[in-house]
Each structure stands twice: as structure tokens, then as C-alpha cells.
Amino acid sequence: MASQTQGIQQLLAAEKRAAEKVSEARKRKARRLKQAKEEAQDEIEKYRKERERQFRDFEAKHMGSKEGVAAKIDADTRQRIDDMNKAVASQKDPVIEEVLQLVYAIKPEIHKNYRA
């Protein structure tokens, strides 16, 4: 009977050691998963920064810098305004003359609804 209780005690101790090993293995697994997740986040962040850098390089190469684009738009706008001002200046006198001719050309007529 003493050997039975001794065997039971050994089994309980072995079960306790096994439970501790399983618990420790779960903790190691959780730590490793957390570490892997952090490494993956770092890799993702590095990849994202690299792609953004490549995009900025591509944009600068093909479209120029934002300042360059803004300067080009400003120059184009100034050119169009100058062209419009030249067109107005060249057509101003004839248009004024035509408007004045229409104002001076008064033809007195009786309105068609007038009844005498």
C-alpha cells in the first residue's frame, strides 16, 4: 500500500512537472509570436518608407517639384492674361466706336401698340 501511495505521489509530481513545461512552452510561444509581430511591423514600416521614397523620386523625375509645377502654372497664367490684355487693347477702339454708333443712331418710331 505504501508503494501505491508512493507511485501516486510520483505520478502527481510528474503531472505537475509536465504542466509546468507546457505552461513554459506556451509562454515561449506567446513571446515568440509577439516578437514575430513586432519584426513584421518593422519590416512593413521599412517597406512603406522605401516605397514612399521611390514615389517621391518618381514624382520629382516625371513631374518636377511642387514648386516647379506651381511656377509653371503661374507663368502660363501670366502669359494668358497678357494675351487677353493685348486682345482687349487691340479691339477696344473699334468696339467703342460700334457701341457709340448704335447709341447715336436713334430712329424715332411710334410704338406698334400706340392707338391714336
How is this structure best summarized?
By secondary structure, the chain is mainly alpha-helical. The protein is 87% helix and 0% strand.
Detailed description of the structure:
This protein has two helices and no strands. The chain has helices spanning 2-63, 66-104.
List the helices and strands and how they pair.
Elements: H1 2-63, H2 66-104
Mean pLDDT over the residues = 90
Strand segment tally: 0
Can you summarize the main beta sheet? Answer: none
Shape: rod-shaped
Alpha plus pi helix count: 2
Classify the beta-strand content into a percent band.
under 5%
Low-pLDDT windows of residues = none
What labels describe this entry?
single chain, 116 residues, 2 helices
